[in-house]
Design a protein that fits this description.
16 strands; globular; four-stranded antiparallel sheet; 24% helix
Length: 268
């Protein structure tokens, strides 16, 4: 049963439940005006959100596995589009929200932000809420060693990114879903399952998202190299294959910018 489990299925089980079952935020504006110093996010039905406890689980995992990416100073999160669309429109707003308080989060020019630890937010079962619908945007952990060129990604960073993401997903998921995935993968360390291509031809690689469409990606570690599968704005890496060191580098080749059809026709 389920001998070949797709990456999408694993991640779907990992992150199911709490988000989908959360209450719509049509009434989130109820606290508007209570605190003149609060930045309020307009009510949006089915917004992108994470529970604060899931965020805390990600912070805990980052601290516990920091050796995978020792030069990354802190865990950040990033707002991005779903799919391969480019970001458009105004910069997003995010906050930590509970019944009794709303804490705005500061995003930089790349839509990245940090989340501070807060026992009050944890106890209040607060949520990280974005002023964008879930179908349009997502909040993901962002782990990247400073100083790397734009076309390089370090494998240890990607491994830590996976562990943070899975820790958050497990916190959101019901007990039965976590147990189901543990049983299917035969391990509680889900990231170790992503070993790349299997002898029988299955693909068990971890998909990692970047900011632009890719033409190619190559994993290099000393004299070894491996062409990775690319799809749109993501590449797939064998993070569970321990024969590749944490210092291995993925070199990216970005696709040329797309020329609008009207411009292309004018040049002909």
């Amino acid at each position: 049963m389920m001998k070949r489990l797709s990456v999408a299925a694993v991640l779907g089980l990992a992150c199911c439940c709490g988000i989908a079952g959360a209450q719509d935020t049509e009434d989130e504006g109820k606290d508007a005006g209570k605190d003149p110093g609060t930045v309020h996010i307009n009510a949006i039905k089915n917004p992108e959100r994470w529970t604060y406890r899931a965020i805390a689980a990600g912070l805990d995992m980052f601290d516990a596995q920091h050796a995978l990416a020792p030069n990354v100073p802190q865990l950040l999160f990033k707002v991005d589009t779903r799919g391969d669309k480019a970001w458009s429109g105004e910069a997003p707003l995010a906050r930590i929200a509970a019944d009794d308080f709303s804490i705005p989060l500061t995003l930089d020019g790349e839509r990245r932000f940090a989340v501070a630890r807060s026992q009050a937010a944890y106890d209040a079962k607060a949520e990280l809420v974005l002023n964008r619908k879930k179908r349009d945007a997502r909040v993901m952990p962002w782990v990247r060693t400073p100083g790397l060129p734009d076309n390089q990604r370090r494998l240890g960073d990607i491994r830590l990114d996976c562990r943070v993401m899975i820790a958050m997903g497990k916190e959101e998921a019901p007990f039965w879903a976590v147990g189901l995935v543990n049983g299917v993968l035969l391990t509680t360390d889900w990231c170790s399952w992503f070993k790349g291509f299997t002898p029988k031809g299955g693909d068990r690689s971890w998909p990692h998202h970047v900011d632009a469409k890719l033409a190619a990606a190559t994993l290099r570690d000393g004299e070894r190299s491996l062409a990775l599968k690319v799809r749109g704005k993501s590449f797939s890496a064998p993070i569970g294959d321990t024969s590749w060191s944490n210092d291995a580098i993925v070199e990216l080749e970005y696709a040329p910018p797309e020329v609008p059809e009207a411009v292309a026709a004018a040049k002909e």
